[in-house]
Design goal:
The structure is a homodimer. By secondary structure, the first copy, chain A, is mainly alpha-helical. Chain A is about 60% helix and about 10% strand. The first copy, chain A, contains eight helices and three strands; from the N terminus they run αβααββααααα. The first copy, chain A, has helices at about 1-15, 20-25, 35-50, 75-85, 95-100, 110-135, 140-150, 155-195; strands at about 15, 55-60, 65-70. Chain A has a three-stranded antiparallel sheet with strand order 1-3-2. In chain A, α1 (about 1-15) crosses α4 and α2 packs across α3. Chain A is elongated. The relative contact order of chain A is 0.11. At the A-B interface, α1, α4, α5, α6 and α8 of A face α1, α4, α5, α6 and α8 of B. Chain A binds a DNA duplex through α2, α3 and β3.
DNA sequence: ACAGCCATGTAAGTCGTTACATGATTGC
DNA sequence: GCAATCATGTAACGACTTACATGGCTGT
């Protein structure tokens, strides 16, 4: 139930509507966790049912209303319990790496295209995360300002440092992926050179048993 | 549908029963993809329905039977299509990093325990993957031997090199995580020293609005 | 008037997990 | 006879995605 915990953590800074929470997921939380509004609204109802958040109906304009959620005492306790709990990461399941295991099924050109896409993707993430880490370090985001205003002065360094450590970790992760793709491209070059001239042909395409 | 493709790729080496496929997932494929038999059996039926694999009922012992699956021509075509297709990795969703973002909710001791668990986990994976990469490089596993026996001689280097590249990539990934956790532990030490003597107390526990 | 944002949902389907369930075969 | 392994499923549930659906508010 990590989505619920991400929501609780956001609500610990201030009460918000489902819409605002979804925006946070689109803007900043997306960097560590991703969720659509279609998942967020039902989850909020569930948290409310469990007493971890409380909803208040506020009016907007003349006719319309909105539901503003706040974290409860029980919600805070659950947050602490969750952060304390040790859980092993879920099993590896990476379609990109699985695919790369079988690049011999296709041509060097296609393998190259896959590595290039991988590289471009993680290079972009790397920049985004690096930017965000910088903003956190300089205490510029609305969320971190708000969070610091709630925490005792002596805790400020820790609050910032943990978050920066997470985002710099993600930057390193992205850098590792970029490097992997870069070395993958070198590998394709080398294999292609060794193979002599074999333009767009698959290296060793899959064949059904007995047929080949 | 990556589970289906992992199954197709395994069946490309030789016909197997669902049980054997599940064993491969427990033994070698688990390193890149993980699935239980309860997911594998229905998926095989689905692949059969789509004409990507063909099942043959073989007898075992006197009374019992088993279903031996082989990849079809269409299954091979689908494998090639899948490896060719460019797909961006799914969004980040890492409960460990999400948690670490909020380590100020708990004591330094608990933060330390979390980083230690992370480190131990990835150090173990790193070793497993490194061992497997070595076995592949030396062409020792049954699967790679079989695969090489089916491929033309000139493709052998590529078949091995792609797989080794994947596993070495996973090793690097695990190394990055180990380093992240190690630096996390250093961070906790530093923060604790800066904070003076605050034994098992949370740095800045979560509080509900207005209540605190 | 209209666009763009604010706001909240439901429904169908995929993917994966845990638990339940069964029975034959092989080797000791 | 018994344990380990071979072999194949189903059921309930949880997490997530895509698409469908609705309607008020705000500024130009």
């Amino acid at each position: 139930m990590s989505l619920g915990h991400a929501l609780l953590a956001l609500l610990e800074t201030r009460p918000m509507t489902g819409y605002e929470l979804a925006q946070q997921f689109d803007r900043s939380v997306i960097f560590v966790w991703h969720a659509r509004h279609s998942q967020i609204y039902p989850e909020l109802r569930r948290l409310e049912g469990d007493g971890l958040v409380r909803a208040e109906t506020a009016s907007r304009g003349t006719r319309a209303t909105k539901r503003v959620y706040s974290i409860t005492q029980e919600g805070c306790a659950e947050l602490e319990r969750w952060v304390t709990e040790v859980r092993l990461p879920t099993r590896e399941r990476d379609a990109g790496y699985l695919k790369a295991t079988y690049f011999e099924f296709v041509s060097f050109a296609i393998a190259r295209r896959q590595f290039e896409a991988h590289l471009a993707h993680y290079r972009q993430l790397q920049e985004q995360w690096e930017d965000h880490a910088g903003e956190l370090e300089r205490r510029e985001t609305a969320l971190i300002k708000r969070r610091l205003s709630l925490a005792p002065e002596r805790a400020h360094d820790a609050v910032v440092a943990y978050k920066v450590h997470v985002y710099r970790g993600l930057v390193e992760r992205a850098r590792t992926e970029v490097e992997w793709a870069r070395r993958g491209l070198e590998l394709v070059d080398r294999l292609e050179a060794d193979a002599g001239a074999e333009p767009g042909l698959a290296v060793a395409p899959p064949v059904p048993p007995q047929a080949g």
